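Hi C.,

You asked whether I'd gotten around to modeling the 97-residue construct. I have! Everything is below, sequence then structure, no commentary in between.
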Amino acid sequence: MAIAAAVVIVPLGVLFFLSGLVVNFIQAICFVLVRPLSKSLYRRINRVVAELLWLELVWLIDWWAGVQIKLFADTESFRIMGKEQALVISNHKSDID
């Protein structure tokens, strides 16, 4: 079982590490080229690039696990989805999800 887990975890770790290096390279380029001109633009770019790194990890795990989300809502709730802020509480089907 440990070998099977390593076969999955090691490539994901290597991919995340290499993606982190790419993100750091982009951040370094922006630090040199953009930050002297506009600190606020540099911070916005940096925030987006760093967020993409973490979202990549979430997407990769979701893709690997084959996660599918089913949403059940009434017509009124469905109509306003995406137009206001909300807190979503998931309903679990098993102990490990």
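If it helps when you're writing up: The radius of gyration is 19 Å.

Thanks,
B.
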